[in-house]
């Protein structure tokens, strides 16, 4: 697929087929995705890939968080189970983690580079018929999640990538034409 077509046709995917995504393929795509520009080559990223029964750890944290957030005692168990099942139904989850430099300039540059990896991966995956969605739900910031996943002090979770073969591809949401946001300066 041509790059321009890939860029325009990639969609964020929310519903997946139940089949597994091959881990070897994901490892290979990630190894290409990390070829991003990165100022001073700090390469501050790391990733946790959870799939199969490996998702249980994360699903259990979400169950506990959702149960404790539910004010109606009679609904707690059902709400917790619903979210547990939701996580377990996602074929693969990639948790994207970045080391947070104390210097804000470096930190922002690092965030930019790590975000580029996510988009690179998303495009490489799309080319293979695999969809992703970049999720930033609030529980990524919770200590219970961080502890369960072994996130260290000084590390920021940039998102969870839900990865799988699309069961449904959403319609494209139109973009403002770039020309409307471009100021051309061509004369002195
Ligand atoms: C930084 C970032 C965070 C996002 N967080 C979420 C999220 O928490 N939940 C979600 O459903 N989509 C999330 N998205 C996906 C966007 O909603 C999606 O890209 C947008 O609707 C455009 O759709 P498209 O990617 O299919 O073109 C996120 C995207 C980015 C770049």
UniProtKB/TrEMBL annotation:
UniProt-listed InterPro entries: NAD(P)H_nitroreductase, Nitroreductase, Nitroreductase-like, YdjA-like
Keywords: Flavoprotein, FMN, NAD, NADP, Oxidoreductase
Gene3D superfamilies, per database record: NADH Oxidase
Entries under Pfam families matching the protein: Nitroreductase
Record text on cofactor binding: Binds 1 FMN per subunit.
Names of the cofactor(s): FMN
GO molecular function, one term: oxidoreductase activity
Name this polypeptide is given: Putative NAD(P)H nitroreductase
